[in-house]
Design goal:
- The complex is a heterotrimer of chains A (282), B (427) and C (269).
- Chain A has a single domain, classed as MetI-like (MetI-like fold, Orthogonal Bundle), CATH 1.10.3720.10.
- Helices cover 74% and strands 1% of the residues of chain A.
- The longest helix of chain A is centred in the first third of the chain and has 35 residues.
- Chain B folds into two domains: 195 residues, Periplasmic binding protein-like II (D-Maltodextrin-Binding Protein, domain 2, 3-Layer(aba) Sandwich); 153 residues, D-Maltodextrin-Binding Protein, domain 2 (3-Layer(aba) Sandwich).
- In chain B, α8 packs parallel to α16.
- Chain B has 427 residues and is an alpha/beta fold.
- Chain B is built from 16 helices and 16 strands.
- Chain B is globular, with a radius of gyration of 22 Å.
- In chain B, the strands form three sheets. In chain B, strands 1, 2, 3, 4, 6, 8, 9, 10, 11, 12, 13 and 16 form a twelve-stranded mixed beta sheet that branches. Chain B has a two-stranded antiparallel ribbon with strand order 5-7.
- Chain C is 73% helix and 0% strand.
- The chains are: A mainly alpha (282), B alpha/beta (427), C mainly alpha (269).
Chain lengths: 282, 427, 269
């Protein structure tokens, strides 16, 4: 082979997979969102009722608000933690071997099925769980702390647990590409630790931060199982709301919510991309 | 092609009859020594449903008794409904509940079942045919199984109000649900559904988080507390839904509930860990808690039970030998072994006479007659469930199924109900 | 420099705490997998035993670990292979201009955003309409790819946009063919990133639940099987599975590291 393969040919496999398994399903969802339905059937047609229902109800707004709140809090925490961890791995662990070891160490817990991990939060955070036993053993509290499980706290804790790595990896990747001599130069010029972080590391890691933020925000916005299990079914999220409709085969309603959700998340992503154009800056 | 299959079927039925004749005598079905038995071995029937009844022991026994393979897939309850409707190709036999059948059957993914081919049709408990336990009993509220048990004809998807020759599903399993309690932690006698909202149990109560069933638990409570009088709890009006949700939203905001549960296992874990001391529950879940040495009672309540029933439906695409095998499987299902197996877990089987033959008289007396156990009661796996001398919570079959207040249901206002339920969760 | 020492200690402790946090559930699972024969999925422990590890290899009341585990591993391997190949090709494509590049980029991002349950439902419906039976190796494979590919492609984009083109140009000036440039210059440089893509792909696919529900067909993958099992009495056997998975992953990774260390030593020596 002497000639380069055309770019469009290289992109074809990706386009094919996404075309068949993403574009068609999305189009199906959009079409179904305009269908009508009754107690037992879906009625093909073109009605706006699903959107009107979805957008005019107080509960929709409340649920979106609650989901966005989860997303923002999770994002802030995972960003802080993820940035710190990535910084440590990129600048304080000098050998690639150890970097690899540490990354592997972080992935291992995720090879145990999430469903099993979710079940294990009960004995970990519950009234008679490890944490409460430890706290009471240490004499820090005389009664079990209820808020640790089946609460918004628990939901966010689980999100942070699940998604911090999604922040660490892209930030770490961009940090590894920062020219070390820049840091040296800044230090030689008398910049302190914080100053170097603020004026050199953060600006140059922004693309990674953007990608990580897209990962975390979209994952949280679309979630249904974490919110249901960790809040004990007592907190709302858009995903839970859609699931409730889907479990009773009210697909048009669920589809309308999905289209709205898709639009909202796309807007959030567009906002992130507006601040940092990851395609240009990477 | 048609002729050969019908011939095969006739032969099949004959041999089946012969085999059961033997079985009745020996107490075990040993197989079908015909040409049919050669082909049937290659048949693989795919069944799906929740883990409640999709137990491996049943598949193993099918292989042993009938020679063909029953492949079972267990899913959670939400996935069951959706897979039934959206992926009819992925299964041959659907193991679903009657209230779900009300939504699934009209979608045209199942084929009606010829009751003439069901050997034990006449022995099915009348709850599933006429809706009445005894000729004098009243029909409970909700989606009573017999209302969605028949369709008008062979190619119909329209439910018939009267029994016809065409079953939507063959009933297999059912039970009467009530509140489970931790007697060591509630600290007072529990007698009514309204006790669930007693402020004494603040932060320690739970209900089912499946909207259409959870709201019925809620309705039982509201009615018991004298807050709302329903015309039909299984088919509420909008104002009734509003009021029910309002009562429960207030309780939720006051912190009455620790969590809502959705899968069997969650209910067990909540109770066993002491997170919850009172909640609506299923009978085998109570048994599972007790098996860990933790006291747990399936408390009969003044207002009666909320019942549910499940059955097996035939996928539309089944035909020929596979369809024959499916009917054979269903007839085998009703012939007693499975019935006894389910009865021993605290459920009820749809044909009681045959199940009785597979149970020890003492077991039958304990599970079905509500008598004190004359021997130690063992689980199907051979583990000790109840010591000699104990009595089943709620008593006999007749008492328990006789006090059903309502069946799990899909209401006409289901669209509105889901909306309100979402509000309840978001509150 | 002392400042840096302090920062190092603080960062290292933070990382240690983070790892501890990640392992919180794993530790709980490890302890409870030694639950006594009568014990359940929650505390208190009722004795200590190896009962549940033995039980893992027996027939369960509901569900089947062996089959679903094999399926999940097989699926994860296929997904990993395809993800690496497709993401690499797409990464190369995006370095140049081609018609529809922007649209494809946004489609990739949309793939990440689309709620998983709807992709799953959409694919399930699509197969039903097309009169095809959904299976784990067709429809579920597609569903998983829509999940792993965006991660893979975004990582590859990040890699290539920072790629030093002068190395390639040098090779080309020396008369290397495009294939030789790729094989001897590009590939060695991006291998670590490809391993990262592979790891991501494997972990995401192996544990994917929502996208599999409606697309897996008759046979469950492991996450579906476990969730299905929770619709009946489940036992600490789930925790035993978790503990074994963790131990197994540790061994695989230790083995891999050992190999790397040996290779390096060999190269130096």
């Amino acid at each position: 082979m002497t000639r380069a393969i055309p770019a469009w040919l290289q992109a074809t496999p990706l386009a094919l997979v996404l075309g068949v398994f993403l574009l068609i399903p999305i189009l199906t969802v959009i079409v179904v969102s305009f269908w009508d339905y009754d107690q037992t059937r879906l009625i093909p047609g073109f009605v706006l009722d699903n959107y009107i229902d979805a957008l005019t109800e107080g509960v929709t707004w409340k649920t979106y608000l609650s989901t966005v709140r989860f997303a923002v809090i999770t994002w802030a925490i995972t960003l802080t933690m993820g940035f710190t961890v990535a910084y440590f791995l990129a600048f304080h662990v000098t050998s690639t071997l150890w970097q690899m070891v540490f990354f592997q160490l972080c992935t291992i817990p995720f090879l145990t099925s999430n469903i099993i991990r979710m079940i294990s939060w009960i004995p970990f955070l519950g009234r008679n769980g490890l944490i409460n036993q430890a706290l009471q053993g240490l004499g820090l509290t005389d009664h079990p702390l209820d808020f640790l499980l089946f609460s918004d706290f628990a939901v966010i804790l689980a999100f942070v647990h699940l998604y911090t790595l999604f922040m660490v990896v892209p930030i770490f990747n961009t940090m590894m590409r920062i020219d070390r001599s820049l840091l040296e130069a800044a230090r030689d010029a008398g910049a302190g630790f914080w100053s170097v972080v603020r004026h050199v590391v953060i600006p140059l890691s922004l693309p990674g931060v953007a990608i990580g933020s897209i990962f975390v925000i979209t994952l949280v916005m679309g979630d249904f199982i974490t919110v249901r299990l960790m809040s004990g079914g007592q907190s709302a999220s858009v995903g839970v709301m859609m699931m409730n409709a889907m479990s009773l085969l009210q697909y048009p309603a669920a589809a309308a919510h999905a289209v709205v959700l898709l639009a909202v998340v796309l807007l959030m992503v567009a906002a992130i991309l507006r601040v940092v154009d990851i395609r240009k800056e990477l | 092609m048609k002729d050969t299959t019908s011939l095969g079927r006739r032969r099949l039925l004959k041999s089946a009859a012969a085999a059961t004749g033997v079985a009745a005598g020996s107490g075990a079905i040993t197989g079908f020594p015909t040409i049919w038995a050669q082909n049937i071995k290659n048949v693989v029937l795919k069944q799906f449903g929740t883990g409640v009844s999709n137990q491996n022991a049943i598949g193993d026994k099918v292989k042993q008794d009938l020679g063909f393979t029953l492949q079972m897939t267990a899913l959670d309850s939400d996935a069951v409904t959706q897979r039934a409707v959206t992926q009819p190709k992925s299964y041959d036999i659907a193991d679903i509940e009657y209230w779900i059948c009300k939504k699934v059957f009209p979608a045209g993914v199942l084929q009606p079942m010829d009751t003439k081919k069901l050997k034990y049709y006449d022995k099915i408990v009348p709850i599933f045919t006429t809706g009445k336990m005894t000729p004098t009993s009243t029909i409970a509220q909700g989606t009573a199984p017999h209302t969605v048990g028949y369709v008008e004809g062979k190619n119909s998807t329209k439910f018939s109000s009267k029994p016809t020759e065409w079953f939507t599903m063959v009933p297999t399993i059912y039970n009467a649900d009530t509140l489970g309690i931790r007697p060591d932690l509630v600290g007072r006698p529990i007698t009514q559904w309204k006790d669930l909202l007693d402020p004494k149990f603040k932060g320690k109560a739970s209900i089912l988080n499946i909207s259409s069933i959870g709201i019925m638990d809620a309705a039982m409570v509201c009615e018991s507390a004298g807050l709302i009088k329903y015309k039909d709890k299984g088919n509420m009006t909008r104002p009734e839904i509003d009021k029910t949700i309002a009562v429960f939203t207030e309780a939720k905001k006051a912190g009455q509930f620790r969590a809502f549960w959705k899968t069997f296992d969650e209910s067990v874990n909540l109770m066993a860990s002491g997170e919850v001391v009172i909640q609506s529950m299923w009978s085998p879940a109570i048994a599972a808690v007790r098996a860990k040495g933790i006291p747990c009672v399936y408390q009969p309540l003044k207002e009666g039970y909320r019942a549910w029933g499940g059955g097996l439906g035939l996928a539309k695409h089944l035909s020929g030998l596979e369809l024959d095998a499916a009917y054979e499987y269903i007839n085998w299902y009703m012939s007693g072994w499975v019935g006894a197996y389910l009865n021993r877990q605290g459920y009820y089987s749809a044909v009681l006479d045959t199940a009785k033959q597979y149970m020890k008289p003492e077991e039958w007396d304990f599970w079905m007659e509500g008598k004190p156990a004359a021997i130690d009661i063992m689980s199907p796996e051979g583990k000790l469930m109840e010591k000699k001398g104990t009595t089943r919570d709620g008593g006999s079959f007749a008492t328990r199924m006789g006090s059903v207040a309502c069946w799990n249901a899909v209401m006409d206002e289901v669209k509105y109900m889901v909306r309100k339920w979402n509000e309840f969760i978001a509150a | 420099m002392r400042n840096r020492g302090l920062a190092h200690t603080l960062l290292a402790s933070f990382f240690a705490l983070f790892v501890l946090f990640l392992y919180g559930p794993t530790i709980t699972i490890a302890i409870l997998s030694f639950q006594g024969p009568e014990g359940g999925l929650t505390f208190p422990m009722r004795g200590v035993s190896l009962r549940w590890f033995a039980n893992l290899f027996e027939t369960q009341a509901v569900g089947d670990f062996g089959g679903s585990f094999t399926r999940s591993i097989a699926l994860a391997c296929i997904v990993t292979g395809l993800t690496v190949a497709i993401a690499l090709l797409a990464g190369l494509a995006f370095r140049r201009r081609f018609a529809g590049a922007t649209a494809l980029f946004y489609l990739t991002v949309a793939s990440l955003i689309m709620p998983s349950i709807l992709i799953s439902l959409g694919i399930g419906l699509m197969f039903n309409i097309a009169d095809l039976a959904p299976t784990w190796y067709t429809s579920a494979l597609g569903a998983h790819l829509t999940w792993t590919l965006p991660f893979g492609v975004l990582i590859m984009l990040a890699v290539f946009n920072r790629f030093d083109r002068s190395l390639e140009e040098a090779a080309r000036d020396l008369g290397a063919t495009p294939w030789q440039v790729f094989r001897h210059v590009v590939l060695p440089l991006i291998t670590p990133s490809l391993i990262g893509v592979a790891l991501f792909g494997f972990t995401l696919s192996y544990d994917e639940f929502a996208r599999s529900i409606m697309s897996a067909g008759s046979d469950n993958t492991l996450p579906l099987e476990i969730y299905g099992m929770t619709t009946n009495v489940t036992s600490p056997v789930l925790y035993a599975l978790g503990t074994l998975t963790t131990v197994f992953s540790f061994m695989v990774i230790l083995g891999g590291l050992g190999a790397v260390v040996l290779l390096r030593r060999g190269r130096i020596g």
